[in-house]
Amino acid sequence: MIVLDASVTLKWIFSGEDKDEEARICRDRHVSGEETVAVPDLFFYEIANVLATKTKLIGKDAVEAFSLIWKFDFEVFSFGLDEFSEGIGLSKRYGISLYDAAYIELARKLKCSFVTADRKLFEKVMNIKYISFL
Fold it and tell me: What is the model's pLDDT at position 19?
């Protein structure tokens, strides 16, 4: 099992970006059943938000792109008080958003790796042993 954030999975549908080949390898391992991908339930909000506000896609195309991500068979996890508490601690300690901390907390809880393509995030948390940059 591996935790991937939106920065990695968006590369599955947009080509020509930095590290997109490495992202596609993650995708192919997931699709083939070699690797289960876990995400916090906020993942889909992040994907939809990026498609709605950070791309030049028109509405219909943004919805189509979102449906491509939606169709992947992710293990989706909701957080309770303990996970939110740990996430707040991570957020404060590393100066990151609670959204980013949620992925890190999920990986810690599942005892698996977290992979991001967000260089700024990685640079802030790179001393956490189970986190890697795509």
Answer: 84
Q: Tell whether the model's pLDDT for residue 52 goes beyond 90.
A: yes
- Fold (CATH) for 2-133: Rossmann fold (3.40.50)
Domain extents in the chain: 2-133
Q: pLDDT tens-digit profile of 68-108?
A: 999 999 999 999 999 999 999 999 999 999 999 999 999 99
DSSP track, 41-102: TTHHHHHHHHHHHSS---HHHHHHHHHHHHTS--EEE---HHHHHHHHHHHHHHT--HHHHH
- Cβ atoms of residues 12 and 69 within 8 Å: yes
